[in-house]
Fold this protein.
Amino acid sequence: MRISYNWLKDYINLNAAPEKLAELLTMSGLTTESILHKEGSDYILEIEVTANRPDWLSHIGVARELSAITGNKLKLPILPKIKTSKDKAGIKVNVEEKTLCPRYTLQVIKDVKVADSADGIRKKLDAMNLRPVNNVVDITNFCLFETGQPMHAFDMDKIEGGEIIIRKARKGEKIVTIDGVERTLTESMLVIADKVKAIAIAGVMGGINTEVTNATKNILLEAASFDQISVRRTARSLGISTDSSYRFERKIDINNIVYSSSRAASLIKETARGEICNFIDIGKNIPAKKTITLRFSKLEATLGIEVPALTAKRIISSLGMKIKKTSKSGIVVEPPPFRYDLNTEIDVVEEVARIYGYNKIPSTIPEIVEQENKIPVEMTVETIVRTILTGLGADEIITYSLLGKNMLTVSDTALNTIVEIKNPLSSEQEVMRPNLVSGMLSSILWNINRKAKDLKLFEIGKIYIRESDIKFAEKKHLSIGITGEVTSWIEGARACSFFDLKGMVEAALSALGIDKVIFKTTSGDIYSRSCSASIEISGEVIGMIGEVYREMLNKFDVKDNVYFCELSLETIIKHANLKKRFVELPKYPSAHRDMSLVVPKDVLNADLIDLVKSTAGTILKEIKLIDRYAGKQIPDGKVSLTYRLEYADLSKTLEEKDVTSVHSNILRVLEEKLDAKLR
């Protein structure tokens, strides 16, 4: 938007230089992007107008803003009283699309003398980069930049049928606009027409067939309000952007129509003579007035400073708002009709702040208030699980929740617990999945078929269970599957095993603060009977783990061994301990001892570790299983287990005799109770 510095002086006394003026406008929210020095003493300010402030798209609008900032009085043009002739002007108006044209006015002016405009008008239009046409057209453009209201003048004698019709264009209807281009219209476009033809594209551009020329004697001065969306779509569709469409797209002030039309009519009478006849005004849809209560306490609390009540009132009044009621606690204001953006108390607070000056609000460091963790515990647990498993080299998968009945893999799943789809789209979407194993094996097969054989995959997803005819349950589960080889810098490449998967499960649960995890040998329908276990936390089963049995893998055409576990994430969340725990760093060194034991195969690792801990007492800091071996040199029915024990005392350095005594006692108890022999 271009604003002429000299033109502004017609509406407000300016003592500030253009550069200072630009700074004042920018600091109040009306950003001035550049200042151009015109020939002579004028300066052009290029300002950036936001979409919510169409009232700034005029010199009077900017002058009103400067009046509020500087305190200088706003000087609006005084309109002479216009006597409307009672004689019929021979023109009728028919608004067929009242929704798209809520208000339409016509001012009839007869016997005008069309000629060149005076120098004053021509200079102002030149500052706006507009080419002067004639005194009538130039005045409509002048008023556009003065008041912000688009207007158009028709040659009345070129109107056929004596009627102006505001209607939608007919399919394929054409019009030659004043730029000399023939345009084809669509049925969605609003036009101004006479009885025969379209004479203007509403809100966008007039037609050449009714333009005002030097031969024109009688004119119709149009000032109206057109629907924002309709104008925008029409302008975009036709590839036209005019000063008028730009303003209609941002919504013009319907209350400003009569004032602007009267201003243009008086200027036309002054420069082109003519007789002002009847004024036609259709659709006076004036928006209902609204009030907003501003509390001084709210103003102070929001800005962090105290703005004097008198100052706040002066700012509000200078912006065109009426103060309807005043009290010690606040005021009730009525926004002006051209301020569509003022709807709530905080909008008025912002107006006071920007005119008072943001630079007067001191910079302060906001108070730091401790906030409780608002992330749901379920999301936190899932994030930790994802972090640990991806850190162990696993990739997350997402599989479909719908399966075909032939994909149901759990043989003991009762049919009355399966959630069936009444109208499945295909045979592959007949039921909701009761577990995650089908999706896991399908993903493993998909990757193997694409030459990716060494896989670590996991999924966090929901399973679905029918609890009764009308009650269903969805539960979130965690599944992990591994196959192929694992590689380490110590052992190199080797086939993955049950214990690799077990270690991943333990790592994930440990990160959630769950330490007492027990793996108990059991059997499951999808697991090999010789390699499967249930997983328990505090006596509650949370899932199963094991090697998927060969018949199951054959159904999915998977040749390699697959180790799989599925856990109830909801049960894990119940036992998770996410509180931060800190342990004092040891001041004294610890001592390590390894022991290799030959024990019966039915001895559980958890039972052995619990027995060692209860025997050693507080001196034992940690015990870990570091090797398991069954083969040559180990009797049938036995297995070799190697443990690493760490002894420490927080109060002193351990002596050899202290460690030896406890270690020997551990070996003795293991032999007595678990038939463990030192290898």
In short: The chain has a mean pLDDT of 90. The chain has five domains: 2-70, 92-282, 292-360, 377-575, 591-678. Residues 513 and 579 are 8 Å apart (CA to CA).
